[in-house]
Design a protein that fits this description.
alpha+beta, Glutaredoxin, four-stranded mixed beta sheet, 59% helix, 9% strand
């Protein structure tokens, strides 16, 4: 049984924001690790036949808003479906999260803070000054992380994560991979949890049989 969830997400993903806390709760409950992999979703779309929101039919765009409102009501939270700075370039934000992870910093609260800034606070996460403010609000070394995020090896890692996402079958955000099984969308988190629980139960049966 795998002891980790490979979590592929876009730093502009409203759905990743809605699923973030529940993913962490599942990981804690079942004692599995989350491996955070920010990806370049526009690149993923180009390679898998997806379309960015602004290029979708009006009917699809309208239904997204309906679903967001339903999920916000169900989860007792709120996001603005059409924030002032909606889905700007997320490359730097992604590299910051990757750099923070490589430095051994907890990235769970960091990536959620960036998503919260976009979807709940009308902030432009493509703006370096805004990203610096978010880092400071998280009590992090803003200048150090911004410098680290510009390193060539971080860009290489970002592209590698994107390549690995496509190889794993990922075509949207958020996506979760456990034991080589893909789950797309925060609305599949209960199925992810069922699979993790089932794998643990099966491992226990095997261990007990072999004793």
């Amino acid at each position: 049984m795998s002891n980790s969830i490979d979590y592929y997400f876009w730093m502009n993903s409203d759905w990743a924001y809605l699923g973030a806390d529940r993913l962490e709760q599942i990981a804690t409950k079942h004692r599995v690790r989350i491996r955070y992999f920010p990806v370049d979703l526009p690149d993923v779309y180009r390679r898998t036949g997806g379309q960015l929101l602004g290029n979708r039919a009006p009917e699809r765009q309208a239904y997204r808003i309906v679903e967001l409102k339903r999920w916000c009501k169900k989860l007792g939270t709120n996001v603005n479906p059409t924030p002032k700075f909606m889905c700007p370039n997320a490359d730097m934000a992604s590299r910051i999260v990757i750099a923070a992870d490589r430095m051994g910093l907890g990235v769970g609260s960091l990536y959620k803070a960036i998503l919260h800034a976009e979807w709940c606070e009308e902030r432009d996460i493509s703006d370096l000054a805004e990203l610096r403010r978010i880092l400071l609000e998280q009590g992090l070394d803003a200048d150090g992380l911004l410098t680290a995020a510009e390193a060539p090896e971080i860009e290489i890692q970002y592209r590698r994560f994107t390549d690995e996402a496509v190889k794993a079958g990922v075509f949207g955000s958020p996506s979760y991979v456990f034991n080589n099984e893909l789950f797309w969308g925060q609305d599949r988190l209960s199925m992810l949890e069922d699979t993790i629980a089932g794998a643990a139960a099966n491992a226990d049966r095997v261990n007990n049989r072999d004793r």
